[in-house]
């Protein structure tokens, strides 16, 4: 056998040499989740006898078009309901037992793909001597629609199919990665946005225990889940839109996938996310973490300074709204919590886009990350925190340090075509990419992100709250979100009391 041919549990795979790295693409890690397997847990793939060519990416999960994701480089020219494929980059298919980094892509649980050009694992493999895995998982209604209450046992697994796909991919890594030069006992999961939120769930899933050993969470934590009651209401709305009655839920398996995706796209954002349900996720992930389920997992977690700017910048309402319309934007975003937020945090200021961005960033990203870090520290787990403060000069600097901006720095893929649209072309980008890229590599190798390229990075603690600020000159800062953190924590306690 040549060095590019590997014998997996299911059959031989021929990859492709790319410089000093080998890549295998489009490897099936489960049977196609189509027909009778729609809304069911993933099943192991069928073995094959001939050498399988693994040189093309498999289809991404079928998804609706998303302008912001396309701006970030998401490609949707090849999507399908048959989407459960993964990709591997390795320095060599030998017996070296390298650290393994498994990437879970973001996209609000409704879009994205492991084959995005940003997520090219060559630099990690070449510079870090690690094995990198990316994969696709079911999205939107096909991955997270809660049908168990109305469909019975036939649909009992439907609400967390996407999470079960992630577990299946991690199980594939355990069973096969040794043949690709990786160590199944040294697996770091890392992800961004919905990918990081998925990791927050996986930390709490008993079935995922032992499938990974460290976690890196970028702009996502353990707060994004729905109760089965709320998820049931979401499914009720979708079934009504599809004109499916409660006694005929089986019909949803015959509806064309694209129709299902397009109809689900009419639901409010983040309506289709992991659900607290059954044996898979029996309690809220934050509660499970507080009880110590992930106490042996080192965690590197952080956010971007201006996360929500990515979304508000492209929202036309901010360019043409009067004071009354702006007030309605806040009320719609925060719902029943808006009165408490306005009383405790606004202090009579005139509402504007800056305040909105700050509140949304804190509520959706910063505070959940801080809370998860605190929970892990309290049970004795090692935690490192960062904040990405580098502001892109693109669009006249208006995007600031927005959501997703750190991705090409972490992956060291700044040279990819189109990336300058997001990051600009300043030479200082390269230094920051080297710092972040090597810090992530160090964490994968040792469970500690310290690298000679950065100032000393202390583990997070509740006395000093050290946070690495990634910027033109990266620096360790104690409690950089101090005032916001305290104010938001006080607000959350107030809201819990009145609810």
UniProtKB/TrEMBL annotation:
Residues 4-478 form the Carboxylesterase type B domain. PROSITE patterns: CARBOXYLESTERASE_B_1 (PS00122), CARBOXYLESTERASE_B_2 (PS00941). GO terms for molecular function: cholinesterase activity. Keywords: Hydrolase. The active site is at residues 193, 307, 403. The keyword Acetylation does not apply. The keyword Hydrolase applies. Pfam families: COesterase (PF00135). Its EC number is 3.1.1.-. InterPro entries: AB_hydrolase_fold, CarbesteraseB, Carboxylesterase_B_AS, Carboxylesterase_B_CS, Cholinesterase, Type-B_Carboxylest/Lipase. Transmembrane segments: none annotated. Belongs to the type-B carboxylesterase/lipase family. This is Carboxylic ester hydrolase. The lineage of its organism: Bacteria, Bacillati, Bacillota, Bacilli, Bacillales.
């Amino acid at each position: 056998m040549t060095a590019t041919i590997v014998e997996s549990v299911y059959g031989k795979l021929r990859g492709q040499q790319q410089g000093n790295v080998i890549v295998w693409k489009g490897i099936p890690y489960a049977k196609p989740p189509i027909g009778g397997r729609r809304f069911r847990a993933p099943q192991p793939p069928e073995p094959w006898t001939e050498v399988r060519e693994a040189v093309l990416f498999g289809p991404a999960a079928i998804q609706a078009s998303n302008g912001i994701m396309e701006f970030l480089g998401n490609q949707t020219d090849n999507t399908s309901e048959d989407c459960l494929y993964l990709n591997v980059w390795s320095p060599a298919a030998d017996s070296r037992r390298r650290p393994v980094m498994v990437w879970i892509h973001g996209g609000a649980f409704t879009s994205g793909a492991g084959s995005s050009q940003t997520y090219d694992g060559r630099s990690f493999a070449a510079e870090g001597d690690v094995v990198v895995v990316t994969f696709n998982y079911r999205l939107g209604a096909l991955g997270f629609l809660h049908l168990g209450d109305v469909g019975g046992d036939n649909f009992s697994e439907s609400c967390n199919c996407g999470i079960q796909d992630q577990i299946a991919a991690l199980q594939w890594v355990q069973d096969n990665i040794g043949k690709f030069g990786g160590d199944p006992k040294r697996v770091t999961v890392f992800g961004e946005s919905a990918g990081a939120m998925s990791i927050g769930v996986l930390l709490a899933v008993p079935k995922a225990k032992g499938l990974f050993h460290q976690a890196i969470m970028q702009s996502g934590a353990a707060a994004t889940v729905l109760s089965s009651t709320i998820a049931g209401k979401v499914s009720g709305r979708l079934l009504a839109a599809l004109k499916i009655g409660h006694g005929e839920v089986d019909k949803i398996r015959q509806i064309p996938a694209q129709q299902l995706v397009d109809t689900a796209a009419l639901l409010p954002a983040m309506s289709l996310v992991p659900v607290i349900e059954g044996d898979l996720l029996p309690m809220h992930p934050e509660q499970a973490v507080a009880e110590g389920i992930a106490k042996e997992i080192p965690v590197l977690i952080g956010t971007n300074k201006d996360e929500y700017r990515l979304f508000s910048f492209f929202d036309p309402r901010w360019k043409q709204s009067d004071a009354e319309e702006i007030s309605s934007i806040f009320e719609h975003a925060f719902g029943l919590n808006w009165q408490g937020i306005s009383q405790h945090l606004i202090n009579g200021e005139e509402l504007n886009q800056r305040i909105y961005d700050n509140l949304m960033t804190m509520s959706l990203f910063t505070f959940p990350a801080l809370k998860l870090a605190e929970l892990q520290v309290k049970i004795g787990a090692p935690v490192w925190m960062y904040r990405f403060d580098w502001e892109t000069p693109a669009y006249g600097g208006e995007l600031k340090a927005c959501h997703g901006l750190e991705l090409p720095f972490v992956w060291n893929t700044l040279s990819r075509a189109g990336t300058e649209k997001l990051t600009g072309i300043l030479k200082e980008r390269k230094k920051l990419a080297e710092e972040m890229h090597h810090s992530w590599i160090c964490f994968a190798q040792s469970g500690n992100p310290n690298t000679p390229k950065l100032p000393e990075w202390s583990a997070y603690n509740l006395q000093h709250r050290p946070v690495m600020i990634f910027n033109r000159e990266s620096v360790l800062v104690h409690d950089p979100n101090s005032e916001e953190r305290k104010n938001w924590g006080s607000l959350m306690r107030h809201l819990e009391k009145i609810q």
